[in-house]
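Continuing from the previous page of notes. For each protein in this section, the sequence appears first, followed by its structure tokens. Read the first protein now.
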Amino acid sequence: MKGFGWIKKWRVWVGVVSVLVLMSLCAWIGYSSAQTEVDGVKKSYDEILSSLEGKSGELERVEGELSTQTDELERVMSSLSEKKEEAAEAASMIDEANKKAGEIDSLKKEAQALDDQIKEKKTKIAGLDKDIKSKKGEIKKLDAAPVTLPSGTFIVGKDVKALRYSASAAGQSGNFVVYSSFGDLKVNQILGSDYGVSEHIFFADEGDIIESTMPTILTPVE
């Protein structure tokens, strides 16, 4: 039985070695799996970092574009605000121009109304002038005999009666002047020439002074 002891020892050693080999194999397998898992995780981590760096660059680019667009938007808003102010100013100027145009139209209407009134007055004046001329032609002479005065100065009430007269030159022309009793000038005419009149109608009141540089005919009229 002693001869077989080494066999038992050998079997023990073989078992121990087998166990060690098996343990080493398991450890190696576990290490390989762990290494593979770690490498996979590392690889994923590197990929994530690379992706993050790319996204970070993309984010910076987007932020730059956003900043540029924001600046452009602010510029457009500022320009729009200026345009609104210009539009408001233009609208105010248009309103003022419309107001002035309304005032001008009103003034034109007033001027037209005044012009119409002036035309109406002129028509009335023309009619009055026509009536006056007609009345002058219709002046009736009184039954009293005309008075012939030589050139000189005469007093109404003493030399001639206080009446209404038509004065005319008796031949040559000259100046015919009448003053009131207070010295006020009542008549100043040239009678009997191309520069004067053929006759002049006037009222001779008591105390009036008649001055004539030529013989004058005073014909009483109504």
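Done with the first. The second protein uses the same format. Note its length before scrolling.
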Amino acid sequence: MRRPWFDLGAQLRDRLALRVALGSIYICILLAYVLGVPDADRFPGMMPRADATPYTALPFDMTSFAFLMFGVLLSLEQPSDYLLADNWMVYIRRRRGLGRFMRYLAVVLAYALAFSFPQLAITWWAVRGSFNGCVMAGFVCSTVMLIVLLLVANIARMLDGRAVGYLICLVVAYGYSGVGDVQHAFVGHTLGVVPNWPIIIVVSVVGMTGVNIAIFNHKELL
């Protein structure tokens, strides 16, 4: 018998109505971007260009904010469900171990790519294939930022603080999308020609992964 967390079909069917409802709202936001005048230098999930003022006009450009928040919401915590699920076929609960956590990371990565790739294709279609390397850089940055937020939400889930986790995701997404100082920090250069954003997101992923592992191992010992 297959273990229930490996049943991909059941996972996709579970809470399908809620996923369709959330996805419909996000599609409307994405369509507004596509049917407008899409920027051939920008992936929809990438932050808008920061202006000279401390804050950008976020209400007029919601695509990057929506990308991150709907990316988190549409997961419906199912990667976390996989990580924390017990094997109901075993009477005495066994430790799930580091192998389960690594598979959880693979699930998070697969989800983030599945969420982002169609939007990359839509961007390519919207600009008639004229986008450049900036779009690919934005795709990578946005996808990894989504992974960071999913890891944050999972930390909150393991600490029984879902609401706090979503609030933190909201604040981070707002800073990423709407605060000029944060945007300047991302696109600025500290080490020569290398922009800051690859360093920021790598450090963030490593840090959030480490915190997740520590909390997960602690829960396993309880």
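What the second structure shows: DSSP finds nine helices and two strands in the chain. The beta strands are 189-191, 194-195. We return to this in next week's lecture.
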